[in-house]
């Protein structure tokens, strides 16, 4: 009688982790690789900027057409009024002797905001940067196309409130947008839609 012996080609069942793990072609995620926090917000930024720019342009045209220089039109007694002023300086009549430099700064702000907006994913950052962009464009157009000439144009201001210097819609948009951006930075909200405090916590517990 011959003994039955297992042949060399007999399949031997595998045991251990190698047998239990299913084959997969997916590569493991790199440690620390963050997923996008939301959709890109550049369209929202541009819409906000366009609306504010249009509103600023419209109100300036109405102010020039309806208000005589030096005339004061009361809104709320003497506290709030319309007063037409040609401003060669920055927002709220600051730096009146540096019109050409302010024009270049405004142009740089416009370019910088658009570049940042290309990768923006935070809605609140889009709102803040849109306000800054719309205001910067509004005053930049005045400096390029209004009297006395390119890079030297005077900005049209027409709103006077209390002791505050005369301003316009663009000035308000720039200041409010800047305040919002500072607040977002202080509280840790990042332009990519994440929040710095939460990101640090998740990295420490990982």
UniProtKB/TrEMBL annotation:
Record membrane topology: Multi-pass membrane protein
Catalytic activity of the protein: Release of signal peptides from bacterial membrane prolipoproteins. Hydrolyzes -Xaa-Yaa-Zaa-|-(S,diacylglyceryl)Cys-, in which Xaa is hydrophobic (preferably Leu), and Yaa (Ala or Ser) and Zaa (Gly or Ala) have small, neutral side chains
Subcellular location, record wording: Cell membrane
Keyword Lipoprotein among record annotations: yes
Key words, A-Z: Aspartyl protease, Cell membrane, Hydrolase, Lipoprotein, Membrane, Protease, Transmembrane, Transmembrane helix
Name of the top EC class for this enzyme: hydrolase
EC number: 3.4.23.36
Biased composition (Low complexity): 18-31
Domain of life according to the entry: Bacteria
TM segment ranges: 45-67, 87-111, 123-141, 161-189
Entries under InterPro entries matching the protein: Peptidase_A8 (IPR001872)
Keyword Signal: no
Pfam name, any one: Peptidase_A8
Active-site annotation: 157, 171
Similarity comment text for this entry: Belongs to the peptidase A8 family.
Function comment: This protein specifically catalyzes the removal of signal peptides from prolipoproteins.
UniProt name for this protein: Lipoprotein signal peptidase
Naturally occurring in which organism (per UniProt): Nocardia rhizosphaerihabitans
Source species taxonomy: Bacteria, Bacillati, Actinomycetota, Actinomycetes, Mycobacteriales
């Amino acid at each position: 009688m011959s003994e039955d012996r297992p042949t060399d080609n007999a399949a031997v069942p595998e045991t251990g982790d190698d047998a239990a793990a299913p084959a997969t072609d997916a590569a493991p995620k790199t440690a620390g690789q963050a997923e996008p926090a939301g959709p890109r917000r550049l369209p929202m930024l541009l819409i906000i900027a366009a609306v504010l720019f249009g509103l600023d342009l419209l109100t300036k045209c109405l102010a020039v057409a309806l208000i005589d220089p030096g005339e004061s039109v009361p809104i709320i007694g003497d506290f709030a009024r319309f007063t037409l002023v040609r401003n060669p300086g920055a927002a709220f009549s600051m730096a009146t002797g540096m019109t050409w430099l302010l024009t270049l700064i405004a142009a740089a702000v416009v370019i910088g905001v658009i570049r940042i907006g290309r990768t923006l994913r935070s809605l609140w950052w889009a709102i803040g940067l849109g306000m800054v962009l719309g205001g910067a464009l509004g005053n930049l157009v005045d400096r390029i196309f209004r009297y006395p000439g390119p890079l030297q144009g005077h900005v049209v201001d027409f709103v006077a409130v209390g002791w505050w210097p005369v301003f316009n819609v663009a000035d308000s948009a720039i200041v409010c947008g800047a305040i919002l951006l500072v607040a977002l930075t202080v509280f840790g909200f990042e332009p990519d839609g994440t929040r710095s405090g939460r990101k640090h916590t998740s990295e420490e517990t990982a």
